[in-house]
Amino acid sequence: MKDAWIPYATRAVPRYTSYPTAADFTPETGVAAAMAWSAATRADEAISAYLHIPFCDKLCWYCGCATSVPNGYRRVAEYVGLLLKEVSLRGRAMGPHGGIGHLHFGGGSPNILNPNDFLELMDALQRHFGLRTGAEIAVELDPRTMKPGQVPTFARAGVNRVSLGVQTLAEDVQHAINRIQPRDMVVALIEDLRGAGIDAVNMDLMYGLPYQTTQHVVEAARFAAEMGAARVSVFGYAHVPWFAKHQRAIDENALAGLHERFTQARVAAMTLEGAGYVAIGLDHYARADDTLAIAAREGRLHRNFQGYTDDPCETLIGMGATAISQFREGFSQNLKDRKAWGEAVTAGHLPAERGIALTPDDRLRARALETLMCRLEVDAAEICAEMDVPDDRLDGALDAARELERVGLCHVSGTVVTVPEEARIMLRTVAQCFDARSPAAAPQRHAKAV
Ligand code: SF4
């Protein structure tokens, strides 16, 4: 990493899985907006759905997700009962639409659900929304806590993509993050999944974990390639103990410094690309025959709350506590407090708590940001033309990008901003030039750039 990048690398920047980001949501945009926007879908449009399962059998100390360890399955079962109510409420609130084209179960660990509960949720989604033929049905899995009979249940329910949390194979690192997961356990699960016909297996890896070395990162990336992972995401550990209290269990002295983190991210990229993977945006890698790599080649890549996707949908219905929905008109987030969320759905109300209605300026910047985050390049004038606004509307962003050009984080040629390969990891910093709401993010609202 160039020394001139250090001040930027230590700056807090959003992940830009949406624009505006969740930090800009306000309570003024609540239930009424969620109702109106849900009803405004188009009869021929495919929609997407996300179900949040906020439970895990064990807590990993690096985790930044909205999850907790339940005291027995009774709490999970209660949550499923409430989630079924929300599926029904959301289904009834929708205008005409063409059914679910992409369905994602995330968390937490969705495999904490008993097979019958999972099937009941799938059945409710089919009844209240309808699943399109060939829909992508994806589930995040924790290999350590799979239950007997779960893989065949997923296959029977039509699950056709899974994401395995692998993170690292190094034992001492696994101990330091409270996630003991032998390599053989992951291999056996992948064999089971493939045996059941679920071939699209994604893997999540991490760098910057306590005691993690560059060699550990290379080993994990090689493993992902050897196992033929369809997609691999490589996230940097974000140490934000003021936000995620359990991260206090992580020894800060065992964390890699900035240069080492940068090197770890680079070796992961080099290992995966050396094995034939295509680099996608900030932190994803896809096998050349995977739909994500094909979408990238064809300029159809998108970015949403699940990261990079080939899903072009404009309506994503998030269900469960904290889940975020995306509409053409804006974003709407469910109540974060699980009790309040449950009370709302029991009372028959959409459990929306906060959100934001998009302004024309938000749409323009969102388009520019998504283009840059997906392609590492954006032509500001082209975006202005596409959105039918004067071509100087993003001049401020170009000025900000020229500042970053001085240290080599991007190139600006006319109205085109390009992020060079060596600065891919700093992509969010360049994207922030297009962000009018959080141009210099408050230090504790987001994680650092590297
Ligand atoms: S399994 Fe995933 S969601 Fe659960 S605590 Fe670990 S990292 Fe967080």
From TrEMBL:
It is an enzyme of class 1 (oxidoreductase). One of its GO terms (biological process) is protoporphyrinogen IX biosynthetic process. It is found in: Cytoplasm. Pathway: Porphyrin-containing compound metabolism; protoporphyrin-IX biosynthesis; protoporphyrinogen-IX from coproporphyrinogen-III (AdoMet route): step 1/1. Its EC number is 1.3.98.3. Binds 1 [4Fe-4S] cluster. The cluster is coordinated with 3 cysteines and an exchangeable S-adenosyl-L-methionine. It catalyses: coproporphyrinogen III + 2 S-adenosyl-L-methionine = protoporphyrinogen IX + 2 5'-deoxyadenosine + 2 L-methionine + 2 CO2. SMART domains: Elp3 (SM00729). The keyword Flavoprotein does not apply. S-adenosyl-L-methionine 1 binds at residues 50, 107, 140, 324. Coiled coil: none annotated. One of its GO terms (molecular function) is coproporphyrinogen dehydrogenase activity. Residues 41-275 form the Radical SAM core domain. Its cofactor is [4Fe-4S] cluster. Keywords: 4Fe-4S, Cytoplasm, Iron, Iron-sulfur, Metal-binding, Oxidoreductase, Porphyrin biosynthesis, S-adenosyl-L-methionine. GO terms for cellular component: cytoplasm. Belongs to the anaerobic coproporphyrinogen-III oxidase family. This is Coproporphyrinogen-III oxidase.
